[in-house]
Amino acid sequence: MSNRPRVAIHKFSSCDGCQLAFLNLGEALLTAAELVEFVHFAEAGPVAPDEKVDIAFVEGSLSTPHELERIRQVRANSTYLVTIGACATSGGVQALRNMADAGQWIAGIYAQPQYIESLATVSPIAQHVPVDLELWGCPVTSRQIVAAIRALLFGVLPVEENDKVCLECKRRQQVCVMVSKGEPCMGPVTRTGCGALCPSFGRDCYGCFGPAENPNTTALSRRFAGLGLLPEQVAQRFLFINNAAPAFHAAGLKAREDSHD
Predict the structure, then answer these.
(1) How far is CA 246 from CA 67, 235, 250, 256, in A?
(2) DSSP-assigned letter for residue 61
(3) Alpha-carbon torsion angle 157, 162, 165, 168, nearest 10
(4) What is the dihedral of CA 37, 155, 147, 56, to 10 degrees?
(5) Dihedrals φ, ψ of 227, to 5°?
(6) The whole model's pTM is what?
(7) Model confidence over 59-107: pLDDT tens digits?
(8) Beta carbons within 10 angstroms of residue 202's beta carbon
């Protein structure tokens, strides 16, 4: 029996992209495997979802009754539970269906909708079980994963990044795409973590890493309107990858209300 800390990586409703942050570690993953024992990681091989572990990483949102039951078991079997990615932390793209009549479109797509088992709404993990650490991103980065494992092995939580993408752009001496090109960039309200990836290629931020600390979504909505975006287009900027994050959700709904005024 190994005396190394035991780690599990669980998948719920998601695209598997955040699990790839582990696999993309390459040689660093082999080094990590010398420090911890991966007892459940279906993407990489070992399958033992019901084992008790020290750290459980969870990817994906909760969209079915079975997933709701399973996350409670994962929580009971884990000392630390860490949600990784937009789906697990804020519902992700799947949560877009919360703003529509799910029963109606399921009936319109599937020939026998009675066989489709889903919850009325999609929700992040923290709405149902206690979460010790949330790693935001779509997807999360390998750097976040390494920092989380290293800190948790010492019994502490890693420092949470709350800076906005705009600060990361300044640190990297990137030209502001909203000022220079008039792009409707979400950087002023989005937390950093991606390394300002999109602005570094001249593209606007899409808000992949969720709301930053104290996001002034009202001011940014007005700026988007000044750039020529219609209220519904403003709403779509907020109601996207992290649409169920409270700050973005409220801003998106407010913009939609304005479109009906």
Answers:
(1) 22, 14, 6, 15
(2) B
(3) -70
(4) 50
(5) -85, -5
(6) 0.92
(7) 999 999 999 999 999 999 999 999 999 999 999 999 999 988 888 888 8
(8) 12
